[in-house]
Amino acid sequence: MPEDIARILTGLATSVGHNPWLQAGLALLLALVLALIVNLVGKILGRLAKATDTEVDDLLVKSLGQPVFTTIMLIGLGSATVILDLGETPQKITIHVLRTILILVWIKYALSVIRYLLRRASQDKYGSRYVQAATLPLFDNTIRILLALLGLYMILQVWGVDITAWAAAAGIGGLAISLAAKDSLANIFSGVFLLADRSYKVGDIVVLDSGERGRVEHVGLRTTRLMTRDDVEITVPNAVMGNSKIINETGGPQAWFRVRVPVSLAYGADIDHAQAVLLDIATSHPDICEVPEPRVRFRLFGDWALSFELLFWVASPEERGRVSHAVNCEIYKRFQEEGIEFPFPKQDLVLHRGVPPRPAAVSGNRQPDGPGAGQPLGE
C-alpha cells in the first residue's frame, strides 16, 4: 500500500512541468491533501464509533488518525526524494530514515492500543481470567519488550544489517541469564499461573502446608504476602505456593464458615437435655447463621466421657475465634445452671491384700555372706 501511494504521487507530480523542485513540492502538496482527506474520513468514522456501546472502536479510530497522517506525509517526502534524485547514497539514506520513522510511528501506535486493551481487560468488571491488576505489569513489560524487538528487527532489515550473528549471541546470553535466574523465573511464572487459576485472591483466608494461617494481602509476580491474626506478615515465594497444598477457607461457593465446638458429658448425664441446651445457645447467638441451622452430633463413647460436637456456621472465617469464645463461655454457664455435669478424667485403682511374694532363690553353689548365712531363705 505505501509503495502504491508513492507511485501514484510520483506519477501525478512528474506529469506537471519539468522542474524537479516544482514536482517535489507538488508531491508534498498532494500528500498533504490526501492526508487531510483521510483525516476528515477518520472524524466521520469517529462519530459513527461513538454511537456504539463499546469504547474500543472509539480508541482505535481516534488514535489511528495521527499515524495515518504521518504515514502519508512520509510517503510524500519519499516521493519528493525520488523526484529530486539527490544521488544514490543520499537518496538511499533518506529513504531508510523515512522508513525508520514510519516503523517507529506504527510501533508506538501498536503499543498504545495494546496497553489500553490490557488495562481494560485488567479491570474487574470485564472479568478477565489471565490479565488482572497484579499481572498487568508483567504483560505490559512483555509487550514492550516484544514490540521493541520487533521494531529493532524491522529497522535492521531496512538498513540491510545481517542479524544472524546477533541472534546467536542473544540466544546464548538468554540461556545464561535464564540459568542464573531460574529461581526468580520460576516464581514469576508460578505467580502468573496462580493468578490465572485463581486458587486464591487478595482477601482470602488460607492455611499453608506448614500450618500458617492468614489473610492474603498481596499476590505479586514473585511472592505472596499473608497477614496472620497476630499481625505478622509472611512472605512466601510463588513457586512454593504453586507446589503446595493450600487450604482456602473462603474459596468455597458460600461465604460462611463452619465451626466445630467439642463438648464432653459425664456418663449418666441427660443427653437429650444437654443437646437442647446446646442448640438453644447456638440459635440465640446473634453472630451465628440461621441457615444452615446449628446442629449437635454424638461422636464417641470415650473412656471417661461422652463426646459431642456443636456445629454452627458464621459469616466468615475471621469470626471463628470470637464466636467460639462466646459460645464456650455460654455453654459453661448454662451447664452450671441446668445441672449438667462436666466429666473429669477418672482412674480406678484396685488393691488386693495377700502374702508378699517370696524372694528368688540364689542360683549356684555360692553361699551368701554375712549374718544368717546358711539359713533357709524366707525363715
Give a verbal description of the structure:
The protein contains 10 helices and 8 strands. A 5-stranded antiparallel sheet has the order 4-3-2-1-5. Strands 6-8-7 form a 3-stranded antiparallel sheet, covered by helices on one side. With 379 residues, the protein is of the alpha+beta class. Helix 1 crosses helix 2 (20-50), helix 3 packs antiparallel against helix 4 (88-122) and helix 4 runs antiparallel to helix 5 (136-158). Helices cover 53% and strands 13% of the residues. The chain has helices spanning 2-14, 20-50, 56-84, 88-122, 136-158, 164-180, 182-197, 238-242, 271-284, 320-338, and strands spanning 205-207, 213-219, 223-228, 233-237, 247-248, 257-265, 295-301, 306-314.
The major beta sheet can be summarized as: 5 strands, antiparallel
Percent strand equals 5-15%
In N-to-C order, the SSE pattern is HHHHHHHEEEEHEEHEEH
The tally of strands reads 8
**Average pLDDT over all residues:** 81
Radius of gyration: 42 Å
- Give the count of helical stretches: 10
